[in-house]
């Protein structure tokens, strides 16, 4: 479509005359996804132009009712993610300050349990989204492309977190926590001074 026609299409969208760019009479479709064959590795098409002008190529998706997250999943994530952040921050504070009372071990276990429950709760919206996408893929063949791309993105995210977690796991001989003799002597002197001061 020409640039002038594109501005009219945007006006139609803004005024609510159309819900998708492809519904406008000003748009000339080059191809749609139903023309793609799942087994084909490439797609070639040609389009004849009758007039000379500057044209705009637009990619549009007009599939209704397929958001990645429904309202129910968004509400769960809005509660779970901040709770998980707070639990992790509290766990870091407890780890860094050391045991400061009888209940410090209990609190550490509670925050670990909250973290695990939150991780499981994050998985529920993902499972719900996959379920919705599967149902949509059954009724509409075009949704199958979207479903597979979502699964691929989630699998890549999972692989990243597994890789990061494995490489940053606690180790017995961690080079980042190595303390040389001078630092160890200074720390022991500081502890002796604290013990003498308390007496």
TrEMBL record:
Residues 3-65 form the CAND6/7 N-terminal domain. The keyword Transmembrane helix applies. It comes from the Eukaryota. The chain crosses the membrane at residues 76-94, 106-128. Keywords: Membrane, Transmembrane, Transmembrane helix. One of its GO terms (cellular component) is membrane. Pfam families: CAND6-7_N. This is CAND6/7 N-terminal domain-containing protein. The lineage of its organism: Eukaryota, Viridiplantae, Streptophyta, Embryophyta, Tracheophyta.
């Amino acid at each position: 479509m020409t640039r002038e026609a594109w501005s009219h299409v945007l006006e139609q969208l803004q005024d609510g005359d159309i819900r998708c760019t492809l519904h406008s009479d000003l748009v000339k479709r080059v191809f749609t996804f139903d023309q793609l064959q799942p087994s084909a590795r490439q797609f070639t098409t040609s389009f004849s132009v009758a007039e000379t002008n500057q044209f705009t190529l637009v990619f549009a998706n007009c599939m209704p009712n397929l958001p990645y997250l429904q309202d129910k999943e968004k509400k769960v994530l809005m509660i779970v993610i901040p709770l998980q952040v707070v639990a992790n921050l509290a766990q870091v504070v407890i780890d860094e300050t050391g045991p400061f009372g009888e209940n410090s071990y209990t609190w550490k276990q509670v925050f670990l349990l909250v973290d695990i429950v939150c991780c499981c709760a994050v998985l529920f919206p993902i499972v719900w989204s996959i379920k919705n996408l599967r149902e949509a893929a059954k009724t509409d063949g075009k949704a199958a492309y979207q479903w597979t791309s979502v699964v691929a993105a989630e699998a890549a995210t999972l692989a990243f977190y597994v890789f990061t977690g494995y490489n940053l796991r606690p180790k017995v001989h961690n080079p980042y926590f190595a303390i040389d003799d001078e630092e160890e002597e200074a720390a022991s002197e500081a502890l002796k001074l604290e013990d003498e001061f308390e007496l």
